[in-house]
Specification:
single chain, 374 residues, Rossmann fold, Dehydroquinate synthase-like, alpha domain, 2 domains, two-stranded antiparallel sheet, 14 helices
């Protein structure tokens, strides 16, 4: 038998850089911002039936003034629609509209819209420009930044996707005023997460006092105080960017961004993405991993109590529905995308605002934590 080997050398890819623009009442200028960050002439806007009617006129006017041609595709609202059928719908619309590689797709909405639209942009014609216009707190502080795009399938959440960075993230905190409190709390779960992992993000020149900021500004955050919210969104984006800059494709450090999400994603999966939302599931997941960390002796009682108190003060005191069994949650976790060598990976607190990654959490320890959350 004769074998030859040919080496293929791929030039080093230039690091990706893109702006995150945060402000109040800035949607009226979105056309110029997109024009400065893409060479596209045609845009496909992907949104949902709740968000698009609210901002349609303002965005359409700005895009027309900037000289763009555009059409919109409106999806159903909800996590259960982050699936292959919706993805196929975006591809088909892009093909019907004859989008070319130099054109762009714009995600206008929350995390669901951003994730599925980003995956469509990553895969359509093997990749065209992608613009994130997050309109929920969850999307503004977390999902719109970092380039993780995906859909759900029958085995779990975000198991099919890609790493694909946007050309621009454009966050107008004015959009948060249109959120019901329940949706605002979805984002607040992710905000608290950043407080609990802040030091491990290794953001240069950070004061590492985000937990104190959250403790002192709860009322202003709930009232959507302009200055507080701009600083909050900015700091969360800087923390996430710091992590992504060190580990874009989740080879190690980036897994800390999933603090509370291992159990949280399992709860979402077992509820069939109905009845309990992402923020509620993550809040439960964070309480559970604090319990595991405390029982393992990783954190002291004072920090454990302080953290649970902060979650409760933000009105995130949720319970796992009795209809969801511990067995089904453990099975769902076995399909988590961070499973390594058959072991579920957990992000656990080790000190105030510090976490580390563990693969030695037993089913018994998980089950005890789950029991406390029912």
């Amino acid at each position: 038998m004769y074998i030859e080997t040919v080496n293929v050398e791929i030039p080093v890819i230039k690091p990706t850089s893109y702006p995150i623009i945060i402000g109040n009442n800035i949607l009226k200028d979105i056309g110029n911002a997109i024009k400065q960050n893409t060479k596209a002439k045609k845009l496909l806007i992907v949104s949902n039936k709740i968000i698009y009617p609210i901002f349609k006129d303002e965005i359409s006017s700005s895009l027309k003034q900037a000289g763009f041609e555009f059409e919109a595709l409106i999806l159903e609202d909800g996590e259960k629609y982050k699936n292959i059928d919706s993805l196929q719908g975006i591809w088909n619309k892009a093909l019907e509209y004859k989008l070319e590689r130099k054109d762009a797709i714009v995600a206008l909405g929350g995390g669901v819209v951003g994730d599925i639209t980003g995956f469509a942009a990553a895969s359509y014609l093997r990749g065209i420009d992608f613009i994130q216009v997050p309109t929920t707190l969850l999307a503004q502080v977390d999902s719109s930044v970092g380039g993780k795009v995906a859909i759900n399938n029958d085995f779990g959440k975000n198991l099919v996707g890609a790493f694909y960075q946007p050309k621009l993230v454009y966050a107008d905190i004015k959009t948060l005023k249109f959120l019901p409190e329940k949706e605002l709390k979805v984002g607040l779960a992710e905000v608290l997460k950043y407080g609990f992992i802040e030091k491990t993000c290794r953001l240069k020149d950070s004061q590492n006092n985000f937990i104190e900021f959250l403790q002192n500004n709860k009322d202003k955050i709930y009232s959507l105080n302009e200055g507080i919210m701009i600083n909050l969104v900015k700091h969360c984006c800087k923390l996430k960017a710091a992590v992504v800059n060190q580990d874009e494709k989740e080879a190690g450090l980036r897994a800390i961004l999933n603090f509370g999400h291992t159990i949280g994603h399992a709860i979402e999966k077992c509820s069939n993405y109905q009845g309990i939302n992402h923020g509620e599931a993550v809040a439960i997941g964070m309480k559970s991993v604090f319990s595991i960390a405390f029982k393992k002796g990783l954190i002291n009682e004072n920090y454990y109590n302080e953290s649970i108190k902060l979650i409760n003060e933000y009105k995130l005191d949720y319970k796992i529905p009795e209809s969801i069994s511990t067995k089904s949650l453990l099975e769902a976790m076995s399909f988590d995308k961070k499973v390594q060598s058959g072991k579920v990976i957990f992000v656990l607190s080790t000190n105030k605002a510090e976490v580390s990654i563990f693969n030695d959490v037993s089913d018994e320890q998980i089950a005890k934590a789950i029991k406390l959350s029912k």
